[in-house]
Amino acid sequence: MKGIGKYWGIIAFAGLIVGWTAGAALTVLVVLSAVSAVYFFFQVPFWCCAVNRDGSLCRRNSTGILMGCSLRQHKWQKMKMTLVPHGWRTLNRGLWGSPTQGVTTLAGLATVVSGIVSVIALLVAGD
User: Fold this and answer.
1) Closest Cα partner for 35 from 19, 11, 18?
2) How far is 95 from 105, CA to CA, in rounded Å?
């Protein structure tokens, strides 16, 4: 995607924030949370941050917090870091590398928390 097309998830995230403040329907909040989470974890422009052979972090561009750069080994390494507990420290080190990455990480976490809270509220309201 080019231009503003690669930032489509920020519009969904803004809609999520407006939805929470305006008291939108819970199903709308669940959908906006899911769409925003998919964007932040798999589509947002981000640095790779996989570990290179010399121990440094890769600074190539990737798409999404959980995806690696164009190197196949880095894609597997990032996915492995999310699933194996001792890799979380290395993954966490790369999530806060710059202010932009920190904001992106916080937004991704906010969408997960929003999704969990809205699903729980939807289940409780359904009783």
Assistant:
1) 11
2) 6
- What percent of the chain lies above the pLDDT cut of 70? 98
Is residue 108 within 8 A of residue 46, CB to CB? The reply is no
Query: Which helix (H) or strand (E) element contains residue 47?
Result: strand 45-47
DSSP state of 45: E
Kindly report, residue by residue over 2-38, the tens digit of the pLDDT: 677 778 889 999 999 999 999 889 999 999 999 999 9
The tokens 């503003």 sit on which residue?
4
Please give the Cα distance from 84 to 120 (Å, whole number). 27
DSSP string, 49-99: --B-TTSPBP-SEEESSS---SSHHHHHHHHHHHHSGGGHHHHHHHHTSSH
Question: Which residues neighbour 88 within 8 Å (Cβ) at sequence distance 6 or greater?
Answer: 81, 82
Expressed in angstroms, the distance from the first to the final Cα of the chain is 43
